[in-house]
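FORM 7B: Structural annotation worksheet

SECTION A. Query
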Amino acid sequence: MDTNANLLVSQRCALIISVFMCVGLCQAQQKGQYVPGQFGLNAGVVPAAGLTYANLALNYSASSLNDANGNHRPNVVGTYGFWVDENIFYFVPTKKILGATFAPYISLNGANGTLVADISGTNLGAAGGGSGFADLFVQPVNLGWHLKRADIVAGYAFVAPTGRFVAGASDNVGSGYWGNNLNFGTTVYVTKNRGTTLNLFSDWETHGQKTGTTLTPGKAFTIEWGIGQVLPLKKDFSRLLQLGLIGYDQWQVTASSGTIVILPASSVPFYSGHAVGFQSNFILPAKNLNFFFKYLDEYRAISRPEGRTIAFGGSWTLRIPKPVAAPKP
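SECTION B. Predicted structure
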């Protein structure tokens, strides 16, 4: 059951919406650019040679805000959420680099977000949201190695602040700063027929200074994981269903610098988020089509909202050169 070339059902994302989230009456938190929930199953797989278009729609929503101890803040009520639609384009040549498939890509993103918050017992509240073209995610280096019992991918990406951003505005769509990402993914095939997989993806992100401010967000590290099983829906393996348990863990690992609102950014507690959920993929290998759905629920969050993520979409590959059909017996 060698479905390696057709299991591209996890994508990456340029971020998206920059929103200050209240942590106290005067404190606020600035998250990084990478939105977890991009990966899960098949984290080490790259597309086959040719042109690939992938679409991923992702929604994050939360109605509770946690403090530095991970406890809900009962005096802060409201909602925070966003939608992002990622349009991802790969070009994969047949020529290898260092024995690896070269699979660069670009993600064009549209986003819409909302923030409505009130702090009980005070006259301080917050409301905002914006929609439009978001930041651009470009992965110029993306190398994938296809081994006997594993697929491995490693690369470098940058985030260009193309989304609308004005310091202090309530309708921003972009983050307002450049970002750099080093990422690594692997898919290990537990069984000989490659139907059972263990998956791990990691992303290390660094950030530039936010336009119009003195703020430079701290570095962040994200891990996404998944355990999956492929089930044939037809005896000839022309239709496959893949099911799996997935999750993510994200941490701020260095202090932000500059000023958030009226506070030194270094005095704001580091954030983290942890979630678990499931993923299902419907795969048509002969047509190079893949469709996926993911749901992740955060079971712990520190100094940030605690919510849930829903992601769905698919991908299609125009194989170049077109694979030669196997001769009939």
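SECTION C. Observations
The mean pLDDT is 85. Residues 4-319 form a domain with the Lipocalin fold (CATH 2.40.128.130).

SECTION D. Sign-off
Analyst initials: ____
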